[in-house]
Each structure stands twice: as C-alpha cells, then as structure tokens.
Design goal:
Layout lengths: L1 E6 L2 H16 L4 E7 L11 H6 L4 E5 L8 H22 L3 E5 L3 H12 L4 E4 L9 H11 L2 E4 L2 H9 L7 E3 L4 H7 L5 H8 L6 E5 L10 H15 L2 E5 L7 H9 L6 E4 L4 H10 L2 E4 L7 H5 L3 E4 L12 E4 L3 H14 L13 H11 L13
Parallel strand pairs: 1-2, 1-4, 2-3, 4-5, 5-6, 6-7, 8-9, 8-11, 9-10, 11-12, 12-13
Helix pairs in contact: 1-7, 1-14, 3-4, 4-5, 9-10, 9-13
C-alpha cells in the first residue's frame, strides 16, 4: 500500500512523527513524504531538515506560501496547495492520502485528493476551537474517509457531522507517543540550544486569531508587557503564518530584553523537552492544551484561539489584561507540576493508527450517517 503524507508546518510534523516512523519501518507500506507550506520556508526554520535528520526521505519539497500573512494570502495559499497536491497526487497515485490537523494548506490538499478519488485518512478531526481553524477542520473531515480522533468527544462530534462510525477510531494524539517515550533532558543539555543561564524559564507561544486580527496589535503588546513584568528568562516561539501574524512579529521586533529569546522552530524532541523543563507555558498554542497535559506542566491560556477545546487540570484561563495574566501566571508557577493526564491518549496512538491503515481497504465512496 502506498501512503502519501503531506506535512505543512512545524506542528504537523511534531504530531505525526510517530506515525511516519512506524509506517517507514513497515515492509507492507510504501511511504512518500511531501513537505510544503512553512516546512520549506527558511523564515520558519525549514522544518523539512528536522524530518530528514530523523531519517525520513522527503521526496517533495514544494513551496506554496503566498506570503503577506493576511486573510487573502491564506486563500491564495490554499489555492496553490490544490494545484501542488494535484500534480504530486497524479504522479504518485497513492492508495491513501494521510493528513493531520486543520491548516488551510491541508484543506487544499484534501480538496485535490477528493477530486482525484484518492481516499483520505485524517488525524485530529472533530476538535472544537476558535478562529477559522474549526471550520477548516470540519471541512477536511467531510472530505476524509478514515478518521483518527484524539478524544472520545471528538469521535462523537464526527458522528454528529454524519461520518460513518465504522471509519472513526479514537486512537489518541500521536504527540503523546513522543512525549511519553522521551527521556527528560537535563537543563544543562538544553542550555546551549536555548542560550540562557537560568533553568527557571517560561515558554511563550502566541498565534493570531484570524477572526479577530484587528485586535492583535493591542493584544500582543499586553502579552509582551506581562512577560516583562514576570521578569523570568523566556523562550518565545514566533507565530505561524496565519493572518495577523505580521502584526505580532512587528511588535516582537520591538522587544529589547536580555531575558526574552526568540526562536522560529524546534525539533519535536527539543520542543517536548523545552516544555517539560519550563516552569510555565503562556499563550494560545494548541500544544499547551494537548501536549502539556501529558507532562503536567502549568499553563496559562489567553485569548479565544482555542475556545471550546478540551484541556486537563494543569491549564488555567486568563483574561486578556496584564493583571489577569500576571495573577494566573504567578499562581501556576507557585503550584508547579500537575499529575500527568491521559485526556489525549495513552502513548500508543501511532501504533493504533498504523495498524488500522494497514487493514483498511481503500474506498472513495462516502455515505452520510443519519443519527436516529
């Protein structure tokens, strides 16, 4: 069986890596990897190099990002993704297209695969969140044939969307496989990577909320001021390519603080260890709801980007003002680590997904499942 996997950004790879590792080792699977989106953009750290460093062959490196980081550039990039994916899918003729997540680039690939009658296996469908991501995620679900959800609630939501129950599998999130298999690195081993002396640091990741981009200039400055007042060594991962990220980047460029260090990308193992060694995660990354639960790292979530997502007790929500953020952050740092959570899986997601993929008989026909 030939499986073609498209990876469109750094988060995609961090979550699908365990699945790719198992598929690559399987003699029954012919795995083809295409890196596209921001994974092949130098300004986002060229994620494809991490993938190759992990022993994978990246057969295609396809640029599709339109640039501009605006609402229109997202639409144009999605269009580019359709054209790019159509060409590669026609060349490879895979049995299954393997996708993960809710990116607009991924939606374009799903559209191309659907028109070419190539079945789609989708990981992480059925989740709820703010911004345009939720709409895109549900669209990809409706184009997909096999679904691997991270939680039981997500599985039930896919049933509500009319998906065939026989093709929905609650496997958990593959990111948990990496986290639970990774031996915690001592801070001294991270010291040279991070360039900080104090192991008592915080991790910040803040992405734009595409439906509220007119507020991002104000919000990012509130967050910057809150981080400065916390007066801790800070590892700040720069935002993704969504509309509004340019406003965030412009504000970050103005930051002049020896305690705040900015990074564009980390390998999945590096990111897990940076999170695990941190005293606090602050921002609105989905990894702060998903990955942090496996580790029990204290999290303060701000903004509406992750509205209605499921999260564990290690996370608290703050209003978007400095005092609320500071109060929540200080309480979380004082609390320290929480017990690990299995909300998003037990660490065996990749094994479950790869085994199911080997057993399915690819079929492009879909029927709406009417709930009675």
């Amino acid at each position: 069986m030939k499986i073609l996997s498209f990876i469109v950004n750094r988060a995609n790879y961090g979550r699908i890596k365990p699945v790719l590792d198992l598929l690559q080792k399987d003699d029954c699977i012919d795995l083809v990897i295409c890196c596209t989106g921001t994974t092949v953009e130098e300004s986002f750290g060229n994620t494809f190099m991490f993938i190759e460093r992990d022993g994978h062959t990246v057969k295609y490196k396809s640029k599709i990002e339109e640039g501009g980081k605006s609402l229109s550039s997202m639409a144009y990039t999605c269009s580019n993704a359709i054209k790019m994916a159509t060409k590669i899918l026609l060349e490879e003729r895979p049995d299954i297209t393997l996708l993960i997540g809710d990116r607009y680039e991924t939606l374009g690939i799903a559209i191309a695969s659907s028109f070419l009658n190539i079945p789609i296996a989708h990981i992480q469908g059925g989740e709820l969140s703010g911004s345009i991501d939720e709409n895109i995620r549900h669209c990809i679900t409706k184009l997909s044939h096999y679904h691997f959800t991270a939680t039981e609630r997500s599985k039930n939501i896919l049933k509500q969307l009319g998906e065939n129950s026989n093709n929905i599998y609650n496997t958990g999130c593959p990111a948990g496989d990496i986290i639970l298999e990774t031996t915690k690195l001592d801070f001294l081993l991270l010291k040279s990577l991070l360039g900080i002396e104090n192991p008592d640091y915080i991790l910040v990741v803040y992405h734009p909320t595409t439906t509220e981009i007119d507020l991002e200039s104000q919000r990012i400055r509130i967050l910057i001021n809150a981080v400065k007042r916390l007066n801790r060594s800070t590892i700040w991962l720069t935002p993704n390519s969504d509309a509004g990220s340019k406003l965030i980047e412009e504000a970050l460029e103005e930051v002049n603080s020896e305690k705040i260090k900015f990074f564009t990308s980390f390998s999945p193992i590096e990111y897990v260890n940076i999170m695990n060694n941190s005293s606090l995660c602050l921002g609105n990354s989905s990894s702060f709801l998903r990955d942090s639960g496996f580790l029990g790292v204290p999290v303060v979530l701000i903004g509406n980007r992750q509205n209605n997502r499921e999260y564990s007790e290690n996370l608290t929500v703050a209003d978007f003002n400095i005092e609320s953020i500071l109060s929540a952050a200080q309480k979380q740092m004082h609390h320290g680590k929480y017990p690990p959570s299995n909300l998003y899986g037990d660490g065996n997601a990749a094994k479950k997904i790869s085994q199911i993929l080997k057993q399915v008989t690819p079929n492009t026909k879909k029927e709406f499942n009417i709930l009675k």
